[in-house]
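ok here's DUF4200 domain-containing protein:
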Amino acid sequence: LAKHGKNVEDLLIGQYGNNVKTLPKTLMFDHISPATRLLEKRRQMFEVQEALNAQKEEFARREDAFRRREDVLKRKDLELQESLIKFNKFLQENELKRNRALKRVADERK
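and the structure:
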């Protein structure tokens, strides 16, 4: 900041105007005691932890939804396989019936 010829107050007034109430609380103090810094860091850590917990909960919800969807898809896949097996059996039985009918017709023509 010093390189550019501007001090912090000029930048803040330029950004926030003369309304000091809109300044972030962390910028209002020039000298902060170590205890206050520690409390601020703990507050920040708490906020980060809360955000992390929220992300974990969202991840768990999404994971659960994906797991349920996967179970539905597996069940539908099994149903489809069973249906395919039944249809294949139906086709084989029809082919046998057709062959018997053709043989019967051929035998009757002799």
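+1. Helices lie at 8-16, 34-109.
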